Amino acid sequence: MHELETSRAAETLATQSPRRLLTEERLRISLSILTDVERQAMSVRFGLGEGHFNKSLRKAAAEIGCSPSTVWERTERALRKLRDVTHS
Asked: What is the three-state SS of 24-39?
């Protein structure tokens, strides 16, 4: 990598890190209103956290150890709670 490219990459990282930290903090605070099972379903289903990826209901259910309909119910309940908080 050339010196100019390295400098630009460092500048980009420096400017994005505070935004990313703020976003992660907001996410953490938002998820704190959920129960443990709702938070787990959201994290596994939608890939929240480091190194996680979105998963189908079937794959999320297999990882959590419940049925796909249970994962759907938990994520729907969690999304409803999150919407209620942001709209109040």
From this structure: HHHHHHHHCCCCHHHH
